[in-house]
Design a protein that fits this description.
This protein is α+β, with helices and mostly antiparallel strands. It has helices at about 5-10, 30-40, 85-100, 120-125, 140-145, 160-175, 175-180, 185-200, 215-230, 245-265, 280-305, 320-325, 330-365, 365-380, 385-390, 395-405, 440, 460-465, 485-505, and strands at about 105-110, 110-115, 415, 420-425, 425-430, 435, 505-510, 515-520, 520-525, 530-535. The strands form four sheets. Strands 1-2-6-3 form a four-stranded mixed β-sheet, sandwiched between helices. A two-stranded antiparallel sheet has the order 4-5. A two-stranded antiparallel sheet has the order 7-10. Belongs to the cytochrome P450 family.
Length: about 525
């Protein structure tokens, strides 16, 4: 049977109408609760014995907030509160830690949250995840996908179903050798970004500054992941603005609007969107419909191109989608949704991380010069870059780690255990949401001497071997079985972007320093870069 015929027979709602638009009903909450009650996990193989001196959960210190259980401390995170969610969410964790210590408990709306900031306790938590680690579900995404009758997606799956999908697709997504085979594709895209920067800065009147550089970085990030997942260039990297209705612009706008609405839905104190169609929910639904539809259309075109005249899949060593669809333990719909998620996740996360790295290099010219010397030694101009080349870039990796410390794209990890555990002397019951505040740890001098300084050298082997940085102090991609599944591709694109830009330009900065805005993933609030051609 041809791959294309297989698509037609199994496509469901994927390609008839792109993504079907279902009408919201009042049964959403009931449906979600039913699904959750059915997704029980296996009993734990063992449990953590209570320490004889452990104190009860109720004695964990923390802010009291409103006595109303549906509000708690949620007002602190409102636009008029002490820690506005958009701009000061991370500051709240640091201030609360200073006040209450390295473990505290906070009631934010309906969620009972325990926050820990001790690397040893973070390690203990991960060591007791059990067979099927569980994250806090993304409720808004869960509701949306139930309404559209789509698979839950690997982020929201739990138990044996999660294990089935994760173990099946790891070969395509997590093995460095497999991901390394694609390096030449995003490297070509990155060379085009360099050409765009060169053309834009060549105009005498701008003094090397590119206005709205963020837009070009998002276009680069989409093009870099598309050339892997779709085996196709979308034509994002041009000097002209993208056409408003083009596939690339619809994808970028859809993903950006999705994250803006998503963070408001997920952190809402009451969560009215679970019961009625609120304005924020409608913006969220429109945004996710938009990039789902475009991604589905592009994937359909990709599958058609992958089929030979004889109706058989075309053979290729770097056909990512074909490899993903060949996994026997993953349904067609699950594989396609994973490809859609990869296309979307790569825009904001990788793009924002590149921006943070460039800013840190611009503000620390001595670090940038040292990185440039490593690039000149390992990657002479005109030389292609593969995974073996990237493995030699030790200072580059140190720069990226130090940037994650100072400007984390995702500041914290969440877990929910299937067993009780003792953390920092307190009993934390099973099913409690636990946040590991790595962004708090990153600012503490006991783990990072002179934390206010940008020092990539602290991550080099000799420094780490001296016992200076605990292994669980910083985990930008998470840890263990539920580590970010797109990590390898994101790192590869980021490394390529930094190499090619620093190889060609001295990166400077103009004006007020960059700050972070919370859009579930952190995003830069400005992009005042100044590029000067290296000679």
């Amino acid at each position: 049977m041809s791959l294309l015929l297989k698509v037609v027979r199994r496509q469901g709602s994927w390609f008839r109408d792109g993504i079907s638009v279902a009408r919201r009903t009042t049964t959403t909450t009931t449906t979600t609760a039913t699904v959750r009650s059915q997704s029980t996990r296996a009993e734990p193989e063992g449990s953590v014995a209570y320490e004889s001196s452990a104190r009860p959960f109720e004695e964990i210190p923390g802010p009291k907030g409103s006595p109303l259980p549906v509000i708690g401390t949620a007002l602190d995170y409102s636009p008029f509160g002490q820690f506005p969610m958009k701009t000061k969410l991370m500051e709240s964790f640091k201030e609360r830690t200073k006040t209450y210590g390295n473990i505290y408990r906070e009631k934010i709306g309906p969620m009972d949250l325990v926050v820990i900031s001790d690397p040893k306790e973070i390690e203990r938590l991960f060591r007791n995840e059990g067979r099927y680690p569980e994250r806090q579900p993304l409720l808004s995404v869960e509701i949306y996908r139930e309404l559209k009758k789509l698979p839950a997606g690997i982020v929201n799956l739990v138990g044996e179903e999660w294990q089935r999908v994760r173990s099946s697709v790891q070969k395509d997504l997590m093995r460095p050798k497999t991901v390394g085979a694609y390096a030449a594709l995003p490297d070509d895209v990155t060379r085009d970004l360099v050409d765009v920067i060169r053309a834009l800065t060549g105009k005498e009147e701008n003094g090397g500054q590119i206005h709205n550089f963020t837009n070009y970085v998002y276009r680069w990030a989409l093009e870099a992941i598309s050339v892997v997942v779709l085996d196709k260039r979308l034509g994002c990297l041009t000097l002209d603005d993208l056409e408003p209705g083009s596939d690339a612009q619809l994808m970028i706008d859809g993903v950006n609007n999705f994250f803006k609405a998503f963070v408001n839905l997920e952190l809402a104190a009451v969560g009215l969107y679970r019961y009625i169609s609120t304005p924020t929910w409608r913006r969220f639904e429109k945004a996710i419909n938009q990039w789902h539809y475009v991604a589905a259309k592009l994937l359909k075109e990709k599958l058609a191109r992958s089929t030979t005249e004889e109706g058989k899949p075309a053979e290729s060593d770097t056909d990512f989608l074909q490899s993903l669809l060949s996994r026997e333990d993953v349904t067609f719909e699950e594989a396609m949704l994973m490809a859609v998620d990869l296309l979307a996740a790569g825009i904001d996360t990788t793009g924002n991380t590149l921006m943070f790295n460039l800013f840190c290099l611009a503000k620390n010219p001595e670090v940038q010069e040292k990185l440039y010397r490593e690039i000149a030694e390992v990657v002479p101009p005109g030389k292609s870059i593969d995974d073996k080349t990237l493995n030699r870039m030790h200072y580059l990796r140190a720069v990226v780690k130090e940037t994650f410390r100072v400007y984390p794209t995702v500041g914290n990890n969440l877990r929910t255990l299937d067993r009780d555990i003792v953390l920092s002397g307190y009993v934390v019951p099973a099913k409690t949401t636990i946040m590991m505040a790595n962004d708090v740890i990153s600012s503490l001098p006991e783990y990072y001497p002179e934390p206010e300084k940008f020092k990539p050298e602290r991550w080099l082997r000799n420094d780490v071997a001296s016992g200076g940085i605990p292994p669980f102090a910083m985990l930008p991609f998470g840890y263990g079985k539920r580590m970010c599944i797109g990590r390898r591709f994101a790192e590869q694109e980021l490394h390529l972007g930094l190499i090619r830009i620093v190889q060609s330009f001295h990166v400077g900065w103009s004006g007020e320093d960059m700050k972070m805005e919370n859009r579930f993933v952190n995003a830069p609030d400005r992009d005042s870069f100044v590029f000067r051609e290296r000679v």
